Amino acid sequence: MHDPFAMRPFFGYNFGDYLGHWLSMENHQGAKLPKIFHVNWFRKSSEGKFLWPGFGENSRVLDWICRRVDGEDNSKKTPIGLVPTKGSINTDNLEPVDMDAIFDLPKEFWEKEVQSIRTYFDEQVNRDLPEEIANQLNALEERVRNM
Questions:
Q1: What are φ and ψ of residue 56, in 5° steps?
Q2: Beta strands in 33-134 (DSSP E)
Q3: How far is CA 61 from CA 71, 90, 93, in A?
Q4: Nearest-10 Cα torsion for 17, 20, 21, 23
Q5: Which residue in 61, 73, 91, 94 is a FRET match for 8, CA 20 to 30 A apart?
Q6: Which residues have a Cβ under 8 Å from the Cβ of 10 and sit 6 or more positions away?
Q7: Which residues have a Cβ under 8 Å from the Cβ of 61 and sit 6 or more positions away?
Q8: Which letter does DSSP use for residue 93 in this model?
Q9: What sign does the dihedral 119-123-124-126 (CA atoms) show?
Q10: DSSP label at 108?
Q11: How far is CA 48 from its chain centroid?
Q12: 82 - beta bridge partners?
């Protein structure tokens, strides 16, 4: 799942250089960098049912993202980054959605996720991994360890 758009096979040059290229964009005067959000639409409950009601309701999350980009204070800091605050995603007229479960951060899962990301970078990028990304991964690992 670390290549969600299946783009890795199409990189025309060194993967580490590719990542470094994107990281260098912040140094370009006047650059308008994209906001990046990660959404797991397919997270399941312990009963194996999807936590989020489905494709037709994804616009509710996109609405939250747009409001966040526009500067609305609708997130809280967690060890893995910013997540929506309670009540900031519109759930009007939905069957009950367990938002607590959606935003639960199981330590064991995140410990495995950090290791999986590290393995992916080791296998795919190895010594060419930009230092900034390695530092971010190490910081994530530390935050997860302290959960």
A1: -65, -15
A2: 75-78, 81-84
A3: 15, 8, 15
A4: 170
A5: 61
A6: none
A7: 39, 52, 89
A8: T
A9: positive
A10: H
A11: 22
A12: 77
88 by Cβ neighbours in 10 Å (0-12 / 13-18 / 19+) ranks as: middle
User: What angle is formed at CA 13 by the lines to CA 28 and CA 26, rounded to 5 degrees?
Assistant: 15
Query: Tokens in use for 61?
Result: 């999350």
pLDDT tens digits for 89-125?
999 999 999 999 999 999 999 999 999 999 999 998 9
1 has a pLDDT exceeding 60: no
pTM: 0.86
pLDDT at position 130 is 97
CA 31 vs CA 17, 27, 28, 132: distances in Å: 19, 8, 5, 19
